[in-house]
Amino acid sequence: MKSKNPQKAMLLSLIPGLGQISNGQKAKGGIFLGVFALFIIEMLTFGASAVDGIVSLGHNPGVDNSMFLLVRGTLQLLILVLFVMFYVINMVDAKHVAQILNKGGQVGTSFADIKESLATHGFPYLLTFPAYILMIFTIILPVLVTLFMAFTNYDFNHIPPAALISWTGLENLKAIFTLSSYKATFGAVFGWTLIWTLCASTLQIVLGIFTAVVAHQDFIKGKKIFGIIFLLPWAVPAFVTILSFSNIFNDSAGAINVQVIPFLNHLFPFLHIPQISWMTDPFWTKVALIMIQGWLGFPYIYVLVTGILQSISDDLYEAATIDGASAWQKFRNITLPAIFAVAAPTFVTQYTFNFNNFTIIYLFNNGGPGDVGGGAGNTDILISWIYKLTTGTTPQYGLASAITIIISLIVIGISLAVFKKTKAFDMEG
């Protein structure tokens, strides 16, 4: 067989398929050439106008819809990325096959060979390919559109199709950190978001571990009953529980101020507990929110930790008892390490979930009471502030998208750092 020139095969693949044909793989070359032809047709009929649309975001107000152009252009960018990947694979494949042929190797040349190769080596890729396509349209496309919106002036003065959107670069991100109207608001909301996330998540984790460890002890009777009771907050829909607590913490007619506090004062006269402004004092509203989330979140941790405790060998505790270890020493040196070894990644997800826990903030008191400027209430976290920025009378979509980017960077960065620290992705051993 005549030797092949790998470099020539790769250069011929500048037009996809020709390199494969020069290697004798006419079937594969025909497929690659067909994909290239489809891409050219797509660019002529849709792609070129889509690229122009995302660059200009429209030319005629009232006619061009900038948001449609942004979505179409983003989709076209994804198509371009996929084609570039295909283009690179096509060139590498031509060079690689030529090298195999020079070494006396065998490669498939017919459609039957391609079919057989897909049925064996390519079967996993055939199964996952539809999932990747679905992911592009349901995850990557919306994320990219939101990302691009952060670099536009999309607000109440620029709502398509009546007005065109235009690119503004980093203006929205700069506004968050430089404009007085948003700088103070972002600082206040971000600070409370961190406090809320740390306190609420830690409380539910501590409660979950505590209840699981206590219920696991041999001297506890009626464990099934306790298990049912601990699962009740999880069984009831969260929005029902939150709305119920909103009534329970009502300043004037809620059960806490009307019944619980008077009962405690009657039972313990020396306490002199005053009525608390749960819904009108920002501090007490925040305390109530943290307590409610502790109540809502601990059952999941309880179930998780209960399963872990059942997997810990009793021999470890017996050996510790023989060595004279106290109950606290057993918990600290045996139970707690075993829990964190398995559940640390899940605990991280509790923090990331509460960082974006919109439901409880919105349903309990709509981010109130009062406000800290910029459309945000005293108990709004970043995600609920974004909601208000996009649904208020003067929506600021571009600014909201910029805050979304900040949230994503924080959550992804912290999660990856913790996962790496806890070796959550290390599946060996």
From TrEMBL:
Start and end residues of each ABC transmembrane type-1 domain: 190-418
Similarity comment: family membership: Belongs to the binding-protein-dependent transport system permease family. MalFG subfamily.
Function of the protein: Part of the ABC transporter complex MalEFGK involved in maltose/maltodextrin import. Probably responsible for the translocation of the substrate across the membrane.
Taxonomic source organism: Ligilactobacillus agilis DSM 20509
An annotated GO BP: maltodextrin transmembrane transport
MF terms (GO), sorted A to Z: ABC-type maltose transporter activity
InterPro entries the UniProt entry points to: MetI-like, MetI-like_sf
Parts of the chain that traverse the membrane: 31-55, 67-89, 125-151, 189-213, 225-246, 283-305, 397-419
Protein name: Maltose/maltodextrin transport system permease protein
Stretch forming the signal peptide: none
Bilayer topology annotation: Multi-pass membrane protein
GO cellular component annotations of the record: maltose transport complex
Matches recorded under Pfam families: BPD_transp_1 (PF00528)
Annotated localization: Cell membrane
UniProtKB keywords: Cell membrane, Membrane, Sugar transport, Transmembrane, Transmembrane helix, Transport
